[in-house]
Amino acid sequence: MSLAYKPHNYQEYAISRVEDSPIAGLFLDMGLGKTVITLTAVNSLMFDSFEVDKVLIIAPKRVAEDTWSRESVKWEHTKHLRLSKILGSQKQRLDALKADADIYIINRENVPWLVAQTGKKWPFDMVVIDELSSFKNSDSQRWRALRRVRPFIKRIVGLTGTPAPNSLMDLWAQLYLLDGGERLGQTLGGYRERYFQAGAKRGHVVYEWKQKRETETKIYEAISDICVSMKAEDYLDMPEKILNYIPVVLDKESRAKYEKLERDLLLPLVDADTTIIANGAAVLSNKLLQMANGAIYDEDRAAHVIHDGKLDALEDIIEAANGKPVLLFYGFKHDISRIAKRFKIKELKTSEDIANWNKGKISLMGCHPASAGHGLNLQDGGCIIVWFGLTWSLELYEQANARLFRQGQKQNVIIHHIIAEGTMDEDVINALERKATGQNALMSAVKARIDKYKGS
Q: Going by fewer Cβ within 10 Å, which terminus of the chain is more open, N or C?
């Protein structure tokens, strides 16, 4: 049974931005209804003003498979839209591309294939990029492919909740796909020279770019006419989000092993007759995070247990939850393996798992943040999150937390972070907090000045 759609005033504003402008960047927080907002605007442009004929939606694979089609049939005013999913084998994709439909949906990995298939005969006059921030790398094949057909696109919409997940440097590629370089410049090099200055470097290779004075203000002003930002707490009656940090002190032997690897870039494991080697900073960071979680992989991908500190902390959390369901995010496969040996845990893999979680049938569910970032509504099943292993990605971190902390959640959401003291865990938390500060500055700077809509 389809539902009648009664948009909030802030949603009406966002819909009008898409309808009134050929370029729209909607930086909407999770839970604000970006999918139904976009579908409503597409329906109007297609069947009321007749400005659009064929629409392409580019989305993460899981979202392309399920979210858009499920949302379109949910609402009375969009259930008539014909969707064709350009997914699966090459034959299936070709058949879907030839199908008579209003909206075509493709996963972002297949964008280069689609561009190669269509070329200058690009058939879509409107393109929606769901999770625009996944096009932040101008060297990626997906970005280069979409840039080639950008001149043939009459209308484009970019949707994301995290437009600058790491720094404002991430914005250039995304904005270029929207406006062809009109606001932030035609090249990444020119953007860097205009708004940043070289920081750490080796020879002629620059490893860090620092913002110039007033860079944020100038960038925000440059993009504010096509980008609108909204945060959930400004427009929704949201429950409280409680962040809790649980320190874990490594025992003396584990601390010695951690410090030896950190200092010497190698760690002999006498009992296993092997040596862990960390060649380079990136490998070392990964190995140290593994050790902070309690185990480490050798060169043959065999996991060696270092400590059980985080497992003990998790046991305390589960006991304190007193039967309430717990959603756990882990970092490595050896995390979930070790957790499963001590606790009864169900790993999120299927739509049935999602349904069972929301029905309260799963007390402890494990999930890697990369597989739970988009399109999962888990707010009906619980209100407790545990980060057993952390991620460097602010985007994955925020998207994962938004599986429970989103519209429809009726309880305060507690987010536990199990942190091994004096380890790389602390660096990750600090980095996420720094990135979040920059992200919030961006979101605030281009936020729609529509306070009158907040009460709707």
A: N
Kindly report, residue by residue over 383-439, the tens digit of the pLDDT.
999 999 999 888 889 889 988 988 788 889 999 999 999 999 999 998 888 887 777
Out of 230, 261, 280, pick the residue that ends a domain: 230
Does 71 share its domain with 194? yes
Q: What is the CATH number of the domain that holds 175?
A: 3.40.50.10810
Question: What's the pLDDT tens digit per position in 76-110?
Answer: 999 999 999 999 999 999 999 999 999 999 999 99
What Cα–Cα distance (Å) separates residue 174 from each residue in 144, 331, 334, 382, 423? 12, 28, 35, 35, 34
What is the torsional sign of CA 339, 412, 356, 352? negative
- Residues 6+ positions from 58 with CB-CB distance below 8 Å: 106, 107, 108, 111, 127, 128, 129, 130, 146
* Residue 456 counted as domain residue: no
Q: Give pTM, 2 decimals.
A: 0.76
- State both tokens at 438: 């920059």
Residues 61 and 129 in one domain: yes
Which phi-psi region, left, alpha or beta, contains residue 268 (left: φ > 0; alpha: ψ -120 to 50)? Answer: beta
Tell me the residue ranges of DSSP E strands in 90-166.
103-107, 126-130, 155-160
* CA-to-CA separations, 332 to 161, 286, 390, 420, in angstroms, rounded: 26, 10, 10, 15
The residue out of 230, 249, 272 marking a domain boundary is 230
CATH of residue 349: 3.40.50.300
Distance, CA of 51 to CA of 327 (rounded, Å): 44
Return the beta strands (E) in 346-442 as ranges. Answer: 346-347, 364-367, 384-387, 413-420
Same domain, residue pair 26 and 151: yes
Residue type, 345: I
97 burial level (CB within 10 Å; 0-12, 13-18, 19+): middle
